[in-house]
Amino acid sequence: MIKCHLSKIMGEKKLKISDVSNETGINRGTITRLYHETAVRVEFEVLEQLCNYLGCGIEDLLEIQKTEE
């Protein structure tokens, strides 16, 4: 399972979904799905834009978590 830390990072920086969307040009729905961890796919370009905008690395944004069987 892949965990997305967008909501945590945005909370620390006191950013709203609309702020990130307006300033990056990323579709608001895409950011909302990543924020709420309901996205099933995401473009590499979107990940790159988010990392550049937030000043973080991909490893800060996404994490692979092992699932127990």
From TrEMBL:
Domain HTH cro/C1-type: 6-61
InterPro entries named among the record's database cross-references: Cro/C1-type_HTH, Lambda_DNA-bd_dom_sf
One function term, GO molecular function aspect: DNA binding
Name of the protein this chain belongs to: Helix-turn-helix transcriptional regulator
The organism of origin for this protein: Marinomonas profundi
